[in-house]
Amino acid sequence: MNTTTQKTADPLHGLTLEAILKALVAHFGWTSLGERIPIRCFTLDPSINSSLKFLRKTPWAREKVEGLYLYMLREIRRDAQTAAKVSSRE
Questions:
Q1: What pLDDT is stored for residue 90 in this prediction?
Q2: How many Cα atoms sit within 13 Å of 24 on the Cβ side?
Q3: Which of 35, 33, 17, 15 lies closest to 72 in space, CA to CA?
Q4: What angle do CA 12, 34, 64 make, to 5 degrees?
Q5: Half-sphere exposure of 38 (CA within 13 A, CB side)
Q6: At what angle are helices 17-36 and 48-57 packed, to 10 degrees?
Q7: Residues 28, 72: contact at Cβ < 8 Å?
Q8: What is the torsional sign of CA 77, 80, 84, 86?
Q9: CA trace torsion 75, 63, 17, 2 (10° rounding)
Q10: What is the rounded distance in angstroms from the CA atom of residue 64 to the CA atom of residue 37?
Q11: Mean pLDDT of residues grouped by 10 in the chain (90 residues)?
């Protein structure tokens, strides 16, 4: 198989930091996001633009955001599997 047509196993592949951040805000909200990752750009007058500026300059914070995104994906997948099992029993 050609390497350009192979799919990557990395769920972050092809995602922008902005897309990841928007998904986290949609799922958790700013308040919960600030509780999970206590950084000022999430807790004090949060916005996508200010958060992106900070995250692009701060590798440790970006790693935390990416880790939380991966956790969110696992949580969503787990919830979907649980819902499928419950609906199949009914």
A1: 65
A2: 30
A3: 33
A4: 35
A5: 1
A6: 90
A7: yes
A8: positive
A9: -80
A10: 7
A11: 62 93 97 96 96 97 97 93 77
Tokens of 8: 């990557």
**What pLDDT shows up at residue 85?**
77
- What distance lies between CA 29 and its chain's CA centroid? 12
3-state secondary structure of 4: coil
* pLDDT, position 21: 97
Backbone φ/ψ region at 55: left (φ over 0), alpha (ψ -120 to 50), beta: alpha
What are 3-11's contacts with CB under 8 Å, separation 24+? 11/70, 11/73
| Euclidean distance between CA atoms 36 and 34, whole angstroms | 5
